[in-house]
């Protein structure tokens, strides 16, 4: 049972990493403009049903993760949860 829980957690983290990468790409392409949104956070909030505050944090992380290989790997394998990753992406650098 514990192995299954760990596996599901790792799968969830891997999926979240892919979602954040897709959000960064969507933001880079300004896809939110197609729906008449004022910014990416508004688009993510409406499309995914999360708060505007959370959406802003997701977008910050989405753009930061490509330069944070260790944080990305830890999200992908379930070592870190999305909440911790969002916090780390506010101040972490490639060197730290």
Structural commentary:
This protein is mainly α and 96 residues long. The chain is built from 5 helices and no strands. The chain has helices spanning 2-28, 40-48, 52-64, 69-76, 82-88. Helix 1 (2-28) packs across helix 4 (69-76). The longest helix has 27 residues, at 2-28. The N and C termini lie far apart (35 Å). 23% of the residues are buried.
Q: Spell out the helices and strands N to C.
A: HHHHH
Mean pLDDT: 94
Given the structure, what is the number of helices?
5
Cα shape = globular
What are the segments in which pLDDT stays under 50 over at least 5 consecutive residues?
Answer: none
DSSP summary, beta strand count: 0
First-to-last CA distance = 35 Å
Backbone structural class: mainly alpha
What Rg is obtained from the alpha carbons, in whole angstroms? Answer: 14 Å
**Strand content range:** under 5%
> Which bin fits the share of residues in helices?
55-70%
Largest sheet: none
């Amino acid at each position: 049972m514990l192995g299954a829980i760990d596996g599901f957690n790792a799968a969830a983290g891997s999926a979240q990493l892919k979602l954040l990468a897709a959000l960064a790409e969507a933001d880079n392409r300004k896809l939110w403009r197609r729906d008449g949104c004022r910014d990416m956070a508004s688009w993510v909030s409406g499309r995914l049903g999360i708060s505007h505050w959370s959406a802003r944090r997701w977008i910050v992380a989405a753009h930061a993760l490509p330069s944070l290989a260790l944080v990305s790997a830890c999200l992908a394998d379930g070592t870190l949860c999305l909440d911790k990753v969002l916090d780390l992406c506010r101040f972490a650098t490639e060197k730290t």
